[in-house]
């Protein structure tokens, strides 16, 4: 995106509005690839016009109307023209920007949920489902998705292209399935919502440490799923996790937008209503009587933080045990890295560093900036400041988030100062 201030504003609007526009267009044209192309056309028009005319009062409705007009032009040229005209006559009426809000509000929520289930269809591989949904609903770039997967950007790009072609070729319906088919897609839908929330909670790139609107949308969709599937413990577990983590969003950055680490946050400002909602959702998951799954276990870990009035009261021994359970249910190098942090807090940095050092040869973490970041933190606590400085600098070079890079470079400088004073 251009550094032009107007273009930066449009980019922000696009990230917020594009999932709604794509979902509405998919309902209209029944082709998710075409819907994304049409939405991109509307963005190009906005980039050309808005710097001169100003941002419309309702930019989301403007983008939707512009894209729908493009869709009608495409359908007019389509071989299925007559069929589509009849369908449009039944489903679409013309409206002005003035009444766009009232007409769109009732469609958006259902369309987004339908789009998630469409892109999580079993005709696609698990990796393709998640990548495509993050692209369309999260507004994430291919690079951001690749970093979430710890995969090559070219690999993710190919997955997304193939996924859109497959959905179109297989004529996957734009609907929320029922019965066994809904269950079949549920794990992929939950994973998408989880990754969507995580991108909002800790943005992989850009100028902002968090993207709260992504968190809000993931949480809203999670609550809808919990209403549809009250007997699924992992749905409640994921909602619990998102509620509890959302309670800390306002304290994750200071007044200047700079990151504030968990142990430095003002816990008096954590949202107590969201904490109560999260704990209640976690209890609903437990009451269903099944072994806790990965989302419920992560919610239980987050609950330990939420219930600690001060950082010193955090039950790190329990958190370490929960990470041990999580590593058995959903083993991954990232879980092991988090477990190492918990072990270091419960039993000392030397024990944590030993676990982290064992992960240094893990291929999946080769470009994962939190590995050297955690290692730098542990080395600093052990008084090995020069080594810590090098690790923080390495982490800063890896991250694509500007706020996080500044934080890591500041920590590296602080370690350098301590090393010089020794």
TrEMBL record:
This is RNA polymerase sigma factor. Residues 185-285 form the DUF6596 domain. It holds the Pfam family Sigma70_r2. PANTHER family: BLL0085 PROTEIN, BLL6612 PROTEIN-RELATED. It comes from the Bacteria. NCBIfam families: sigma70-ECF. Residues 18-81 form the RNA polymerase sigma-70 region domain. InterPro entries: DUF6596, RNA_pol_sigma-70_dom, RNA_pol_sigma70_r2, RNA_pol_sigma70_r4_t2, RNA_pol_sigma_r2, RNA_pol_sigma_r3/r4-like, WH-like_DNA-bd_sf. One of its GO terms (molecular function) is DNA binding. One of its GO terms (biological process) is DNA-templated transcription initiation. Residues 115-167 form the RNA polymerase sigma factor 70 region 4 type domain.
